[in-house]
Amino acid sequence: IVSQTIRNASIFDPKVPARILRMFFHDCFVRGCDASILLDSTPENKAEKDGPPNISVRAFYVIDDAKAKLEKACPHTVSCADIVAMAARNVVTITGGPNWNVLKGRKDGRVSKASDTANLPAPFLNASQLIQTFATRGLDIKDLVALSGGHTLGFSHCSSFVARVHNFSTIHETDPSMSTEFASLLKNKCPSLNNNGDNAGQVLDTTAAQFDNDYYKQVIAGKGVFGTDQAMYNDQRTRPIIESFAKDQNLFFREFAASMIKLGNVGVNEVGEVRLNCRRAN
Asked: How far apart are the first and last CA of the chain?
């Protein structure tokens, strides 16, 4: 049921796969994989989905749709957290990436706070900060590099990278680790520091609808969109892993699947509930 829902939604809107994959990552990184990212804000509580890094997380309707169909087929059985985990696997598989077995049995959390989204890795962290952020979730350096490969799908708004091409530092207008032709391309996409319109931005690799290892090749060529992409390439701890994934797509696929299973086990809630509506606690 989940995979059919995902497939149909992705045909209708090709941005769905990237959005679902990001939703899973943002859910698991904050309070564990407990579907807390799906809860709507209430007058008393500003929820995770309204925290700054999550304003651009979309496609919640796809999860709602899958949940409604599952409630008809087998009521009160499948948690929203499990649906998000399965959906993340399905979007990777239908875009040409690896398949893996999603462990089920997650329960849905009842707490969702916008302030917790400050724990999400920001696009300007350096390699040590990234490694540290992942370590607090029990994820190691290989997981960091493999999961970053999820950026093979999708698109970034200007706000996440514009500081790399305008006023980067007192010495350099643009980030010197970026290829010059790529820097001017990004400058044209985002002409000013502050106001670039909602739709301006840049795809994250040259095959944005295809799950492949092209992201790593772009990073090596100085065409990573985020500061974090280049930071990992410039660090001796992460660079060899990037190079190995760029050379060997099957290796990347195996490691990505293994890291997604680890990510899917972060802070799993076994005492929560199975929500009837993913947008609110029962």
From this structure: 23
